[in-house]
UniProtKB/TrEMBL annotation:
The lineage of its organism: Eukaryota, Fungi, Dikarya, Ascomycota, Pezizomycotina. Residues 201-267 are annotated as: Disordered. SMART domains: KH. It comes from Rhizodiscina lignyota. GO terms for molecular function: RNA binding. It holds the Pfam family KH_1. Keywords: Repeat, RNA-binding. This is KH domain RNA-binding protein.
Length: 344
């Protein structure tokens, strides 16, 4: 059994993990950084990021520069204790490096610097807690200020949680956030990772109705996993499932007629958006199934108090990729339509 799997007591309730078990649990935690911030994190000839790895034992890297894109993604993978320490070092480095970067409005004279963490939309409820109690507790314990953005980032199921505080406060907050993610790791599977480059490739214009080829050709460029595969240079965007995932999800993966592994991904869709994705008489969802070749099933009822419904997508990596893209294209188009509709 992996360190991230919940153990159940005789009464069927999960046994709480000890602090030591949390400390050693493996996790991947990503953050969005600007190009200038990325420069400070990497350092001259990669010195800063190398020192960070040596000091904390984590694997850390920043996504490549993409022309015309100002955001890059910092990925930190390792034991939770190392990840929390790594974000403390990053926050301190950004604080010290801010004046030299000429980062304008981002400089705070009160010894704090914001870190924009990327959190799976499906796991956000665990961090916010019922009526916001958990996020308040994390802020109280660490002394940071946290703001969770409501919208998912384009073409992904990730949202930003901005953490503003001292480097020590950020370390404590990341430790608490990490504990939530470990407890709720099951719901992180199938996360569609945000990739800043996708914005450029799909173009900034209005979304097309049919999901034309130009938008889909970018499918290969973004990794989608909660398991740290950002570090692999493999061309396929899906790594093989980790044992912890496979063990908890019977039946085992089968293959398509072409010998490709069949994979399953879950995404949550707000209830008020489900109708626009299904379409009149199921026309839109039928079209997405046909066009992508993936099977898509929709939960009849919301899966928790957020009122969101679970969509389960099953198929080859390429089919799932296409189905996810088409689902998001429909979502974005509906959001745009609603934002432009005259208010009642």
């Amino acid at each position: 059994m992996s360190s991230n799997e919940a153990r159940l007591g005789p009464d069927g309730e999960p046994i709480p993990r000890t602090e030591e078990e949390y400390a050693q649990s493996q996790l991947t935690l990503r953050a969005i950084v600007s190009s200038k911030e990325a420069g400070v994190i990497i350092g001259k000839a990669g010195k800063n990021v190398a020192d960070l790895r040596d000091e904390t034992g984590v694997r850390a890297g920043v996504s490549k520069v993409v022309p015309g894109v100002h955001d890059r993604v910092l990925t930190v993978n390792g034991a939770l204790t190392g990840i929390a320490k790594a974000y403390q070092i990053v926050a301190k480095g950004l604080l010290d490096g801010a004046p030299a970067m000429g980062m304008g409005g981002l400089i705070n004279t009160n010894g704090t610097h914001p870190v924009r963490l990327l959190i799976s939309h499906n796991q956000m409820g665990t961090i916010i807690g019922r009526q916001g109690l958990k996020i308040k507790q994390i802020q109280d314990v660490s002394g940071v200020r946290m703001v969770a953005q409501k919208e998912m980032l384009p073409q992904s199921t990730e949202r930003i949680v901005e953490v503003q505080g001292t480097p020590e406060g950020i370390e404590k907050a990341v430790w608490e956030i990490g504990k939530c993610l470990i407890d709720d790791s099951e719901r992180g599977y199938g996360t569609v990772l945000y990739n800043p480059a996708v914005r450029v490739q799909t173009g900034a214009g209005p979304l097309s109705n049919g999901g034309g080829g130009a938008g889909l050709s970018m499918g290969r460029s973004y990794n989608r996993t909660g398991h740290g595969a950002d570090f692999s240079d493999a061309p396929a965007p899906y790594p093989r499932r980790s044992t912890s995932d496979a063990a908890s999800r019977p039946p085992p993966p089968t293959t398509t007629e072409d010998g490709e592994e069949i994979q399953t991904q879950n995404i949550s869709i707000p209830s008020d958006m489900v109708g626009c994705i299904i379409g009149r008489g199921g026309s839109k969802i039928s079209e997405i199934r046909k066009s992508s070749g993936a099977r898509i099933s929709i939960a009849k009822a919301p899966h928790d108090e957020s009122g969101e419904r679970m969509f389960t997508i099953t198929g080859s990596a390429a089919s799932n990729e296409k189905a996810l893209y088409l689902l998001y294209e429909n979502l974005e188009a509906e959001k745009m339509r609603r934002s432009q509709a005259p208010q009642e």
